[in-house]
Amino acid sequence: MDENLNNQHTQTIQISADEIREICREAGADDAGFVEIEREALAHEKGDILKIYPKTRSLIAIAKLINQEAVQSPATNIVDEEFHRSYDDLPSIARKVLRDLNERGVRGVVTTYAFPMDMNRTPGKVWDISHKLVAREAGLGEVGLNRLVLHPKFGNFIGLLSILIDAELDRYDHPIKENPCIDCKLCVSVCPVGAIHKDGQFDFMACFTHTYRELMAGFQDWIESIIGARNVNDYRARVRDSETLFWWQSLTFGHGYKCVNCMAVCPAGEIPIANYSPDKKAYVKQIFKPLKEKPEPIYVLAGTRAEKTVEGNPNKEARIVHSPLRPTSIPDFLNGVIVIFNPEKAKGVSLNLHFQFSGEDQSSATILIKDNQIQVMDGHVGKPSLKVQADARIWLKLVNEEISTFKAIVSGKLKVKGNPLLMNKFKSCLMK
């Protein structure tokens, strides 16, 4: 009898995809799709998925429709209310799905739609799973120029969530064959920080710094503004009363997104495009222009393309802020340097830096800056402009401006072979 029970626990349950899809719809989801854990596209996510739920065999991606008209409103408080209420529905829907599956012998875990995240991993990958990736693989849509999943019917006006289950399905879904993005470039033109480029490039830091002002790095910056202020008047010189009240509101009601313009103007999808195609001029006048011409502060890092973009729009005001993204390990530094690289400051700069790290994070790497681009490679590649040997802990203190280059060199834990001034040139190519 014990052996039979053990076999029941080790055997993988199989269930119909159509049955689960119906369960999802009855629970309130507007669409659902399914992916097997062994899907090649999920390979780099698999480790994190199995940490959450080691028995995962399949992933359910659910989509919940968001009110398009609310998201398109120039009133950000209306937009935020819609996001909070819609996103609050997702976990409830997912839990209904999982309870129904539990009755069929299927066990699993509902992931978080966004927050809370694991802040112990800061500044690295603090999220557990990319719902966009899962949704794409599950056939719920394709990623558009605005970096959002575009559903064939609903466009980008959806919220996404993933459920991990221990069952195998009789069939799985796959990415859709045609991207709903119509290449209208409205998202490119409406972005207040110029984060979305026509050629498909995306400036993560520009978007992150403004849109997430009330979250993570922006919140750290605010706390440091409080601590760093000499007195009340100094604080008020740094932070406006309206900004302080926004922080209060984020801590009481919930955080707000400073910008969702790219989502608001996107006409992709069967339903949104019905409001766009018949009269494009009216669409631009009613939806695009109010967002483009709305007077508002835009949060940017100094000396960046984002700052120049804001300065080019008389309706927007550039508010210079700091990004307290500080690496806590060498892998964090090597991954993060790509994100905080500032092409505006790298014009005419050509550097090949060879790093040899010792101590806690022993590794070697090459950072190449050329033609306004940065590349990070394992090991030493090419002829170096500068060779850097550093204790990992000392290097992180140097990067986080907790110690000067001179003091690091004097300590004997930082050795530079080549012109040490190139270190300053390298640091000047990074956002602060």
Q: Which short descriptors sum up this protein?
A:
432 residues, alpha+beta, NADH Oxidase, Nonspecific Lipid-transfer Protein, Chain A, 3 domains, 5-stranded mixed beta sheet, 4-stranded antiparallel beta sheet, 15 strands, globular
Can you walk me through this structure?
The chain has 432 residues and is α+β, with helices and mostly antiparallel strands. It folds into three domains: 2-169, 3-Layer(aba) Sandwich (NADH Oxidase); 186-321, no CATH class; 330-428, SCP2 sterol-binding domain (Nonspecific Lipid-transfer Protein, Chain A). It is 41% helix and 18% strand. It has 19 helices and 15 strands. The protein has helices at 2-10, 17-27, 43-52, 68-71, 76-103, 131-137, 186-190, 204-211, 216-228, 232-238, 241-252, 261-265, 270-274, 280-292, 305-311, 330-339, 392-399, 405-410, 421-428, and strands at residues 14-15, 31-36, 58-65, 108-110, 142-143, 149-150, 158-165, 168-169, 296-301, 316-321, 351-358, 363-370, 373-378, 386-391, 414-417. The strands form five sheets. It has a five-stranded mixed β-sheet with strand order 13-12-11-14-15. A four-stranded antiparallel β-sheet has the order 2-3-7-4, sandwiched between helices. β5 (142-143) and β6 (149-150) form a beta hairpin. The model is unreliable at 1-9 (pLDDT under 50).
